[in-house]
Amino acid sequence: MSDTTQQDWIKPVAMAIPKGGFFKDKAEQGRYGMIFPKSPACYGFSIVAKVIPGREQVFYEYAKNIEKAVADQPDCLATLKLHYLRWVLFPIKGETYFMYQGIFDTDFDKYTEDAVTLFTKLGIKTVFENLEGFPTDWQTNAPAFIKFVRDHQCPSFLEYGEYPYVSADEIKKALKLKAAFSDMLDQMQ
Amino acid sequence: MLENEDIQHILLTRTPALTGQYKFLSFRNAMSARVWLSAILETVQSAAEVQASVDQNKRWVTVGFTWNGLRALGVDEASLATFPDEFKQGMAARAEILGDTGENHPDNWVGGLARTDLHAIAILFARDAAERARCQTEHEKLIAQCKGVEVLSTLDLEATPPFDYEHDHFGYRDRLSQPVIEGTGEVPTPGSGLPLKPGEFILGYPDEGGPPANLPQPRILSHNGSYMAYRRLQEHVGRFRDFLRRHGQTPEEQELVAAKLMGRWRSGAPLVLAPDKDDPALGDDLKRNNDFNYKHMDPHGYAVPLGAHIRRMNPRDTAANMNRRRMIRRGATYGPHLPEDAPEDGVERGIAAFVICASLIRQFEFAQNVWVNDRNFHQLGNERDPIIGTQDGTLEYKIPKRPIRKKITGLPAFTTLRGGAYFFLPGIKALGYLAALSDVRQA
Lengths: 189, 443
Hints:
Chain A is built from five helices and seven strands; from the N terminus they run ββββαββαααβα. By secondary structure, chain A is of the alpha+beta class. Chain A has a single domain (8-187), classed as Alpha-Beta Plaits. By secondary structure, chain B is of the alpha+beta class. Chain B has 15 helices and ten strands. Chain A binds chain B through residues 1-5, 28-32, 78-79, 106, 110-111, 113-114, 117-118, 137, 139-143, 167, 169-170, and chain B through 84-86, 96-97, 209-211, 213-214, 320-321, 324, 361-362, 365-366, 369-370, 374-376, 379, 381-382.
């Protein structure tokens, strides 16, 4: 909650998260399942899945596609309310695994269908379709896609925020305000 | 092409009903339920029939079933399993997702709507009171012949005066923003967007995402069907008027507060087009009263506050994939009109509404969960929908204004949910299929 009435952002906060990823008494029911809690590091997920052997190269090509998509249309991911995304490939016992880690401002459950639509449009499917167990009918079956994501989500057991709970929009607003103030002061010289 | 002759009329047509009754039914045995269905089926009209005869007709009947109701009629388990989870679970079980907590919790619902043996709804709309009385008598006779069909409750509908336009008990003009379905020939009013693919509302047609997929089986049961979320919302008219008086010194100021909560003046005139003063002629003009956007015309909410009811229920050009979130609204008001100068009389009055869509989870539940009840919608931090959101007196409502916004704290609940349910609205052939099921199939 980027409730700006509380000046929570001044004080860094760490939060220990119980095994399983939920606070039992506070867990909120979302449309597709329990909602993972908001932490000082906002909402987020860490999806870990095994890459279908031999498909690694696809991921590197895909990275260039996303780079270009964002360069061409900088707000193309805006609906996801993101702070950061990290895509990682790593080996376990000679096999390649993929981690997709995101930090964002709204719980995934809320805008999950929008994400599926966006993934289709941007060609993010090229990555997911190279993961083992990814539902082949995901484009017409949002619940199956969401189940895959939830099944492969590895919840954090500890999260930290240097400026806790602040949304990306609030940060951008603050930076705009700062720029406007600088400009105002310059104009008054 | 839409199969209008197989689609229940409520999906595609509005009828000139001024009164009516909803009947909530429970089936004690399948045979009896099917006898009831076979009989009432004679009176259930398709969209094509109503379009051809609406001027002569005096009554319009719609029937729908809960998932448990389909089972009670004899639909087999394999078929039942193909329906989506949210429909199987039913509205009461989804309460937390929908924000139906506190006063709105299913424990407090009336009319047996939270019961798992709620099986069906019969919606009866009539042109006048005499016709309603006649139809009620007819239906009571039918029920008397079907020993295994129990009426759990009924709700009488009444339009509220003045009758020359649709409005709720708070006085807000209604039915201003309805989606138009491609292939109906209907032309959207300016500002209402392009016609949408029929699959957004009717099962078996392409939707805004592509060809139909994952439909309940068998095809004859789901084809031309739809889902309907029922909401019985009590409107606390006395509390609402007190609130307006508390926050506005003059009648004009009070009207502005009412308009700021809704995003439209009670006349229907949108604040984006009439920000300072009501314009009843604009409110009444379908060519103009929906012709506006937010992103360019009111990005900061100086006209329509970011959390106003119409901005949450239809964010227009400020939300992604709007075409996948639209809903058809039907329904009526119930309870007596509270005269303008009368104090709250404690009598229940409100709106008994239906939201019709092809996917309850993607359309109706999304609207409830995100648009209505997400406290942080549009970064508002501590708000919910001021008219239909879950309010417990702890939230606020911000009205952007230069130089400094107005913030109302401790917003009261102007509405309380008194009951609700998810119904499947089968096509006409599907109703025939259900009426002809036999117990033998239930192995």
